[in-house]
Write a structure and sequence with these properties.
It is a single chain. With 313 residues, the chain is of the alpha/beta class. It has twelve helices and 13 strands. The strands form three sheets. Strands 1-2-3-4-5-6-7-13 form an eight-stranded parallel beta barrel, surrounded by four helices. Strand 3 (86-91), helix 5 (96-109) and strand 4 form a beta-alpha-beta unit. The longest helix has 14 residues, at 96-109. It is globular, with a radius of gyration of 19 Å. It starts with a helix and ends in a 5-residue tail after the last helix.
Length: 313
């Protein structure tokens, strides 16, 4: 049985980053996999498809037949509205103005049923200084939510302050293909606390394939490097608890470092960490307005681990 509390915590949580390492699927395989996952039992947990700006045109042409809406031109009108439009987040790997033009063209094309329904409503941009935020916001349209990926700093408050009050969000990288790419839990805690204080929403990326903090393989290669990886339940429970003021800021580190799955309890109307509970309204508010999503090159691994914990049937 899927408790409503877990569904609320997981709703749209996992963005599909299957084009990126360590999975690094070919575009066609990633598109076909995403289409299958959109109809899976656990599809409620699936968020945006993440596509580099430089590949957005090819993605558009390759995915159109599998997007919702295309059946409308083949006489199967009842299937046209079966699923909502695919949502896409665009990583900026070319000049921002060029990428924005590509996003505009994509959205114009996929507003039509006969082209497949989709919407690129978010972008992800790496920055080096807080000033980069204002420069980018000057040209990013209001209907696209920008996520600014911070550099790996231990004190992110200057960056978060630059985002406060804007229609933008922060992004933190939580792992990588080698142990040294994994930030210490203290860095993630500082990021979450700063975002909570400034009321800046965020997403995470990389290294969050598994729900609970533990030693894991970092790639799918034979004899892969191994290291302690952060858990996505740790990260998003810490964020939600901070948002609801159910823990003190200094306790966020303990949530992130928790390695005992039994310390997290999932009930019909609440989730908790060591007795600090969040009800459905608190969870929904945190997920809708603060702890938005994380990118994962695997959707199957997080779901399989949740099943192994007994949290999903």
């Amino acid at each position: 049985m899927l408790h409503q509390s877990l569904r609320t915590l997981l709703e749209g949580l996992i963005d599909d980053a299957s084009l990126f390492p360590p999975a690094a699927l070919e575009l066609g395989a990633a598109i076909e996999q995403h289409a299958r996952q959109k109809r899976a039992t656990e599809a409620f947990a699936l968020g945006r498809f993440i596509c580099p700006a430089s590949r957005l045109e090819l993605f558009s042409r390759s995915a159109a037949l599998l997007m919702p809406g295309t059946y409308a031109t083949s006489g199967y009108r009842e299937m046209a509205d079966d699923l909502p439009p695919w949502r896409v987040s665009v990583t900026i790997d070319q000049p921002l103005d060029v990428a924005l033009d590509a996003i505009d063209a994509f959205n114009a094309r996929h507003a039509r049923e006969d082209q497949g329904l989709a919407l690129a409503d978010a972008l992800e941009l790496k920055i080096e200084t807080p000033d980069d935020i204002d420069t980018a916001l000057d040209i990013i349209p209001d209907d696209v939510l920008p996520f600014f990926e911070l550099p790996p700093v231990d004190d992110p408050r200057g960056f978060i302050a630059a985002l406060a009050g804007s229609d933008a969000a922060a992004k933190i990288r939580c792992g990588g293909l080698v142990p040294e790419a994994i930030p210490p839990a203290s860095r993630i805690a500082a990021f979450l606390v700063a975002c909570a204080v400034a009321e800046v929403p965020f997403k995470a990326t990389a290294g969050l394939h598994h729900p609970i903090r533990a030693e894991q393989a970092l790639t799918y290669e034979p004899d892969p490097p191994r290291a302690i990886q952060h858990g996505f339940i740790n990260v998003f429970m810490a964020a939600a608890l901070l948002h609801a003021r159910a823990i003190e800021p200094e306790e966020a580190l303990a949530v992130l470092e928790e390695r005992d799955a039994a310390a997290f309890a999932v009930g019909p109307a609440s989730v908790s960490w060591r007795g600090r509970a969040l009800d459905l309204d608190e969870l929904a508010l945190a997920r809708d307005t603060f702890a938005l999503s994380y990118g994962s090159c695997s959707f199957d691994e997080p779901i399989a681990d949740l099943r192994a914990l007994g949290w999903l049937a």
